[in-house]
Amino acid sequence: MRFVRFGPAGAERPGVYDNTGQLRDLSGEFNDLSGPVLAELNKIDPANYPAAHGDVRLGNPVGQVGKYICVGMNYTDHARENNMQPPREPIIFLKATSALCGPHDDVILPRGSEKADWEAELGVVIGRPAKYVTEKDALSYVAGFVSVNDVSDREFQIERAGQWTKGKSADTFGPVGPWLVTPDEAGDPQNLTLKFWLNGQLMQDGHTSNMIFPVAKLISYISQFMSLQPGDIIATGSPSGVGMGRRPQVFLTPGDVMELEVGALGRQRQVVRAETL
Fold first, then answer.
1. What are the tens digits of pLDDT across the range 90-110?
2. What is the pLDDT of residues 17-52, one digit of tens each?
3. Are 258 and 272 in contact (CB under 8 A)?
4. N- to C-terminal Cα distance for the chain?
5. Looking at CB atoms within 10 Å, which of 77, 123, 191, 271 has the fewest?
6. Whole-angstrom Cα distance, residue 234 to residue 260?
7. Do the strands 68-72 and 233-235 form a parallel or antiparallel pair, or are they unpaired?
8. Which candidate, 137, 155, 205, 146, places its Cα nearest to that of 174?
9. How far is CA 87 from the centre of its chain?
10. Distance between CA atoms of 63 and 52, rounded to whole angstroms?
11. Torsion angle of alpha carbons 193, 87, 115, 66, nearest 10°?
């Protein structure tokens, strides 16, 4: 099934699409797509809920995200385009949850940003508490999968002192969605295409089979260092074709239009804007 959160920013309601494509409003059943609800999604019958009508804004489809965990250099071709050796262990860092936004919201370049970049990624949403889980059991902890654009300012990330987090965490640098797709409908997470277009030009054309560390390995690995809670998002890395890796390099400017899709998880579209504060 395909779950969403819809409505104005900060006041989204939970919803689900039925098999005809009609959006159904779940807000009479629970307040949000978060917490223990995420472990019970397969029990929901969309036909039991009222239809939602009119044009609606789609927000990040996961509510109350506790941790946004990212994996760096997890594709062989992405490591190669950056002249880096594939890592021996997953490279893990955190992206601020304040960066989260809807799949079609504008992406706002912060003050001083001149090297903003895109990264199309498969996102994994945790459905129940996970700690010290085995790779064999890891996928049973997944509530669903989402498309992710891990927007990054490469100067803030790499050329400034400190860790990657500050280059990843500007407001709106975390578009997620449009849908949270349950595992039965999303399919094998290691058999999904990833595509990204900038102003209509295909820039990334990858496949999750080229991950260095597959999804099950990542969940198991991360759970050895921190507990994973319902609603946590893991962004599993990006294939080649990012702006930093192109020759000449290409970075985002106001007016650019980004589009991406991962497998059958739905398409995102964002317009890039300059900070106006």
1. 999 999 999 999 999 999 999
2. 999 999 999 999 999 999 999 999 999 999 999 999
3. yes
4. 39
5. 191
6. 18
7. parallel
8. 146
9. 22
10. 19
11. 70
